[in-house]
Amino acid sequence: MEGKTKHLILSNTEWKMFVLLNFLMNKADRSATLEEIKQHTGIPETSISYYLEKIYNVVEEVGNNEEIKIYKIGPFLHLEAKSPVSVNILRKNYIANSFFMYFLQELYHHRFSNLMKAADERYISYDTAKRELVKCKNYFSVYDLSLFPKKRVENMLEGSEVQIRYMYFCTVLTQFGFDSKRFFERKNVSLENFLGNFQGKIPTSSYMKLEIFYQICLDRAKAGKLLGADFHLPHLFDDHCVDKQEFFHQAKCLFAGFRLTEEELRKECEFLHFIFYTLVFEPLGNVREPEKMENYTEFEIYTQTLERYFETKLTKKERFFAYFMLNKCLAWCETFHVNFAFPSLTLEKRRIEELNPKKMYLWEKTITSLKQEKSLGKFFQHNQNLEFFLLRICNTIFFHRKERCKVFFLTYSTTFQYTAMEKLQERFLNLSLEFTTNIEEADVIITSVDLPKQRIKTPFVCWINVPFDTNDWQHIEKMFNAFSERRYGLDE
Predict the structure, then answer these.
(1) pLDDT at residue 107 is higher than 80
(2) Cβ(106)–Cβ(347) under 8 Å?
(3) Which is deepest, 28, 37, 185, 333, by most CB within 10 Å?
(4) With pLDDT > 90 as the criterion, what percentage of the chain qualifies?
(5) Among 423, 460, 430, which residue's Cα sits nearest to residue 355?
(6) Rounded to 5 degrees, what are φ and ψ at 462?
(7) Under a CB-based contact definition with an 8 Å cutoff, are residues 424 and 407 in contact?
(8) Can you say how many angstroms the Cα of residue 298 is from the centroid of all Cα atoms in its chain?
(9) What InterPro entries does the database record attribute to this sequence (predicted)?
């Protein structure tokens, strides 16, 4: 499968570009003859200048302040780098910043994307976007998934949820240069038994993430690339998900036969625990009150700022959730400094904007205020991912809230009315819709029938056609947005 998909994500030219860069980086003196390069990459001497220009463009676009120079001296190419350069990270960032990945993430998270709007947001032409769409269709077909780019289709992806998740994880692995087919076909019994101990204790969505990250860590340790003596992890508080001592005892079995010293083994187990701590996502409804509060200042600043700008009051459970997740993200930001979040941040901003357009304005005011706080400002300076993490916490809280909304729905067609009511429940996930037959107690009225005006007590009334057309859905969405704005105190 890897052979089928790697050239669907990257073009043949892009793939050769990274092969060339990797080939030079792995040479002892970072030099190679043009004949060696041709044999290894298939790039002829006449095309070398073209590929060097593309490499410089990639480093400038997605590099993390890396500076490289590649010189052509007679029959040789020589690479110089002022700082360590990871080809895997460059390739990952390049793919993450591509329209293909942007479009794929939208489909994965929303099951729908407006191609014209996506093209505008990524500053590419509509014709280029259509070519990328063909690439996406071919890519999905490898995983037995179908893509239906029709305007009126609500779910553009057709296939099992298991295959959709599998496809997404394979894509992530490909970003890092792993052969996803061989990765998943390998059977690590020790790892399966280890993770099996946590089934029922952690969400199913976290299980595959842990399996992937742990296998990568074990491969690294087995190859002798151990964590350095200067690698330190931040202090973690107990999140009640797993006993740390029991975790260490079981994790040691994963390194059987690795010939590690006691200190090396302790450090590797500590890193596995850190990954477990930061990657396991505890749903908002499952959080428990912490025994003690650490990073309390940052937590209070974050929650108070949210409450002030969004003019809301967080519940006790929402505050606990914000506390746990803030600690996780601060620990991650303190440890890792790779910037992966720009496309993800864009997606999170769209989520909050779709929930309520005015919330995006409130979030911008919130994040500006947080960046000015001294205790949080140091994290913003050292890690560009923090805004993404904080916005995801905010989104999770607001998407978890289901505003109660009583809906009076009346049309001439009983069958259509029943179907439309189901569609409304699926479409407006931020609302808990309760359908009522009492017009006077309704918060929202949707009707294709004339109603006595004296019985209508709400300003939120929408007249529709049967069946719904595009304009009807737009009017209904506008009405529900107006209803949400009033409930949040955001109406003008």
Answers:
(1) no
(2) yes
(3) 37
(4) 1
(5) 430
(6) -130, 125
(7) yes
(8) 24
(9) BglG_antiterminators (IPR050661), Mga_HTH (IPR007737)
Residue identified by tokens 């993490």 is 389
The string over 203-233, giving b where at least 16 C-beta atoms fall within 10 Å of a residue's C-beta and e elsewhere, is eeebeebbbbebbebbeebeeeebbeeeeee
Average pLDDT (27-55) is 83
Amino acid code (one letter) for 373: E
Q: CB neighbours (10 Å) of residue 99?
A: 21
> Directed axis angle between helix 204-222 and helix 262-279, to 10°?
150
- Residue tagged 């979030």 (tokens): 363
Alpha-carbon distance 416 to 223, whole Å?
Answer: 62
| Count of CB atoms situated within 10 Å of the CB of 181 | 15
Residue 111 is predicted with a pLDDT of 57
Q: What are the C-alpha distances in Å from 152 to residues 293, 427, 447, 481?
A: 49, 13, 22, 21
Q: What are phi and psi of 417, to 5 degrees?
A: -60, -45
According to DSSP, the β-strands at 76-81 and 146-147 are: unpaired
pLDDT tens, position by position, 325-378: 888 888 777 776 555 445 566 666 766 676 666 777 888 888 889 888 888 877
Contact (Cβ atoms closer than 8 angstroms) between residue 105 and residue 89: no
pLDDT at 2: 47
Query: How far is residue 134's CA from residue 49's CA, in Å, rounded to a whole number?
Result: 30
CA 379-344-11 angle, 5° bins: 125
Give the CA radius of gyration of the chain. 26
Average pLDDT, the chain: 76
Q: Per-residue confidence at 488, pLDDT binned at 50, 70, 90?
A: very low
Q: Which candidate, 285, 458, 267, 298, places its Cα nearest to that of 378? A: 298
